[in-house]
Design goal:
It is built from 7 helices and no strands. It is 53% helix and 0% strand. It is mainly alpha-helical. The protein has 2 domains: 1-13 and 81-151, no CATH class; 27-73, no CATH class. The protein has helices spanning 3-9, 27-39, 42-53, 61-73, 92-99, 119-135, 137-146. Bound molecules: iron/sulfur cluster (2 copies).
Amino acid sequence: MTNETIKHALAPCGLSCETCFAHVDGGIRRASQALKEKLGNFGPYAAFFENLMREPVFANYPAFQAMLDYLAEGHCTGCRNEQCRMFKECGVRPCHQEKQVDFCYQCTDFPCEQTNFSKPLYRTWVRVNEKIREEGLAAYYAATQILSRYP
Ligand code: SF4
Ligand code: SF4
């Protein structure tokens, strides 16, 4: 596992872009594309099964399909390539470039007041970077591979 691979997957703040729903190379996008392929032209079948099986849940298929289409598209190439779609006021992205560190845990000013994060996100940021310091970057990255970003 190269450092470049890990940097592609993890934002400078330590959070995992690769496990974000929006990431073009993320697991959620890949799984959504695979499910789309497996479902094929399921829409008319969903209506048919709703009547045949008398299962009202099939009536929700159009909304499910719209969400699946969205997730399968991919919307972001990651924090190191473009501004985060969600945390538009994030202070870490410009700051880590100024400080010339790959991750906040490497910064002598960590933990700082530059992030602009909400209190819950700030606590997560501190916890994540302390964890990377304790366990090492490769071990932390490996753990993100098997966990959901949305526990
Ligand atoms: S930069 Fe933001 S929106 Fe883009 S993949 Fe990372 S967490 Fe998701
Ligand atoms: S000053 Fe704060 S936000 Fe900037 S790189 Fe250091 S720890 Fe990260």
